[in-house]
């Protein structure tokens, strides 16, 4: 690939049925032509030795300019406007502490065994459990990634039932902190045990809240 556009124009190096060899792409042009071939993301042609790629899909709005997204945020009051940054509350854990406010992120539905029907079935399951699909913008080659995201406290359906069943017979010891840890561990372990059997996926990550902005009021 020629990253300097002046070094070499796009040209046919060799051809003959049933194949053709084309060279002279820059890195960005290579990504876009692969996006056209793999995902149909571009209409392409060569103009004056350079790739002209027109996106098939409309670009997603930039978060900075998408006014419709701004409506979901509470506007600051006049007094809050002068505060450049509020101090964060930090949640500290010792090595034996259970996860606080655990979040589950699942990627690569079906793993190495992808089929359209299998993907559809796994999506329906995750949505019934309360998961939300988060997708990135398309890259130059037309690919994107998706994350299935769930705060455990917002679990629904069968997953919520399994979580509640895991703590139904727990007895309080009188130590609130210890009881809190035990319940959280039981809930998370029940969720992971259930998901690993119910859903086919490539990876599952558990993250935990460590910093939180306090209420300014």
Protein described:
With 217 residues, the protein is an alpha+beta fold. The protein has two domains: 11-55, no CATH class; 87-212. It is built from six helices and ten strands. The strands form four sheets. The chain has a four-stranded antiparallel sheet, covered by helices on one side. Strands 1-2 form a two-stranded antiparallel sheet. Strand 3 (42-47) and strand 4 form a beta hairpin. Helix 5 packs across helix 6 (176-198). The mean pLDDT is 82.
Main β sheet profile: 4 strands, antiparallel
Mean pLDDT, to the nearest integer, reads 82
N- to C-terminal distance: 57 Å
**Percentage of residues assigned to helices:** 25-40%
Q: SSE order, as H and E?
A: EEHEEHHEEHEEHHEE
Total count of helical runs of at least 4 residues: 6
- Output the strand order for the largest sheet: 7-8-6-9
Question: What is the gyration radius calculated from CA atoms?
Answer: 25 Å
- Structural class by sheet pairing and helices: alpha+beta
Give the oligomer, counting copies of the same chain as homo and different chains as hetero. Answer: single chain
Short account of what is shown:
This protein is an alpha+beta fold. The chain is 31% helix and 24% strand.
What are its keywords?
217 residues, alpha+beta, 2 domains, 4-stranded antiparallel beta sheet, 24% strand
């Amino acid at each position: 690939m020629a990253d300097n556009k002046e070094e070499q124009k796009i040209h046919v190096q060799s051809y003959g049925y049933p194949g053709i060899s084309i060279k002279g792409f820059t890195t960005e042009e290579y990504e876009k032509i692969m996006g056209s071939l793999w995902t149909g993301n571009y209409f392409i042609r060569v103009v004056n030795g350079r790739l002209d790629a027109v996106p098939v899909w409309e670009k997603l709005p930039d978060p900075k300019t998408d006014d419709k997204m701004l409506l979901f945020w509470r506007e600051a009051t006049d007094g809050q406007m002068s505060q450049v940054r509020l101090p964060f509350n930090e949640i500290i854990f010792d090595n034996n502490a259970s996860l606080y406010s655990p979040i589950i992120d699942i990627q690569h539905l079906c793993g190495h065994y992808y089929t359209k029907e299998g993907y559809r079935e796994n999506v329906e399951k995750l949505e019934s459990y309360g998961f939300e699909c988060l997708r990135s913008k398309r890259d130059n080659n037309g690919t994107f990634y998706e994350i299935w995201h769930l705060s455990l406290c917002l679990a629904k359906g069968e997953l919520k039932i399994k979580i509640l069943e895991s703590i139904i017979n727990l007895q309080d010891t009188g130590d609130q902190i210890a009881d809190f840890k035990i319940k959280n561990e039981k809930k998370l372990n029940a969720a992971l045990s259930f998901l690993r059997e119910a859903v086919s996926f490539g990876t599952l990550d558990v993250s935990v809240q460590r910093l939180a902005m306090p209420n300014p009021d």
